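Thread: "does anyone have the structure for this chain?"

Original post by V.I.:
We have the sequence but no experimental structure in hand. Need at least a predicted one for the grant figures.
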Amino acid sequence: MTTITEPAVYEIHIEGYLDRRRVRQFGGMTATRLPDGVTALVGPVADQAALHGLIGRIRDLGAPLLLVRRISRRGPDVRSEDCPQDQKGLTD
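Reply from O.Q.:
Generated one for you, tokens below.
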């Protein structure tokens, strides 16, 4: 069972595209512009408090939050293969 103090890798979708400056506000997360007008952020999150901080930044941007999903627990067993290939790197 995962606790609220354990790190994990999360996938977060928000409506609209973020520019590179705004993506930097989500340090450690990779961003991809999906074809349906959605930005996908994927990366490690230290704990539930940090996750709430990320969600607060999204709220402050005024961007609608569409999805928050834990992909896997963070640790030695988390590899780059745990993040979908189509969500690596920010595209222009």
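V.I.: this helps a lot. The radius of gyration is 13 Å.
O.Q.: and Strands lie at 8-15, 30-34, 38-45, 65-73.
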